[in-house]
Amino acid sequence: MSEMNKEKIDVDFYHEIKSGEKESGDSFFYAIYEHMFICVIADGLGSGQLAKESSEIVVQFIKENPLLDDQSIVALTNKHLFKKRGVVLGILRIQMDKGEYVYSSIGNIGLIVIDENNNRERNIPKHGYLSNRPCELKQISGKVSRANFILYSDGVSDNELTRETFQYGKPSQLIETFKRHISHTRSDDTTLIAIQYNHSL
Ligand SMILES: [Mn+2]
């Protein structure tokens, strides 16, 4: 991992289990490989152990094959979900040397991109989930020089995604503000990852 690229990315997250459950059905990871930053959230349908099992299968597969293209990841992880719970999935990749990003999703994992002037762009998810049958990937892409990326599972409600909380800024501060403004009784497993990318660092 190059030190130069590490400085371009800053990450913090909120991850909470649905109230009353022992395990989270959401799984996530992020990492840097050469010039690419990757961040993944998988949300197993339902909650508890069976949801966790499915989302972990998908995240583990991507951890082991981070450079595989997203179409192949979907085709291959689909097979691993035979007779298991389905999963909704979001994969964000940022080419850190160029500022180009691609977001691939199946179902309801949200993405908001906030540029340094606080312009927000919110990805509208497409229905569907991964579950051992063909499904269509939604892809969006763009180019930024400095921006925040907010990736979140559907445990985050719309009214928790306020403009006041999610301004362009340091991920640790965004997460602190987010935590202060939300209910800590969660009606679903909740994962929210705040990423700051700065091309010029
Ligand atoms: Mn969920």
Protein model, in words:
The protein has four helices and ten strands, in the order αβββααββββββαβ. The chain has 201 residues and is of the alpha+beta class. It is globular. The mean pLDDT is 94. Bound molecules: manganese (II) ion. Manganese (II) ion (MN) binds at residues 43, 153-155, 188-189.
Q: Number of DSSP helices?
A: 4
Strand order within the widest beta sheet? 1-10-9-6-7
Mean pLDDT: 94
Largest sheet: 5 strands, antiparallel
How large is the radius of gyration? 16 Å
Bound molecules: manganese (II) ion
Reading the helices and strands in chain order gives HEEEHHEEEEEEHE
Strand element count: 10
Instruction: Compute the separation of the termini in Å.
Output: 16 Å
- Pairing-aware structural class of the strands and helices? alpha+beta
Proportion in β-strands = 35-45%
Q: Which residues form runs of ≥5 with pLDDT under 50?
A: none
Shape: globular
Provide the helix percentage. 10-25%
Give the key terms.
alpha+beta; 36% strand; 10 strands; 5-stranded antiparallel sheet; 201 residues; 4 helices
Question: In a nutshell, what does this entry contain?
Answer:
The chain is an alpha+beta fold and 201 residues long.
Summarize the helices and strands and which ones pair or pack:
Elements: H1 3-6, E1 9-16, E2 26-33, E3 36-44, H2 48-64, H3 70-80, E4 87-95, E5 100-106, E6 110-115, E7 120-122, E8 138-143, E9 146-152, H4 171-181, E10 190-198
Antiparallel strand pairs: 1-10, 2-3, 3-4, 4-5, 5-8, 6-7, 6-9, 9-10
The structure holds manganese (II) ion.
Manganese (II) ion is lined by residues 43, 153-155, 188-189.
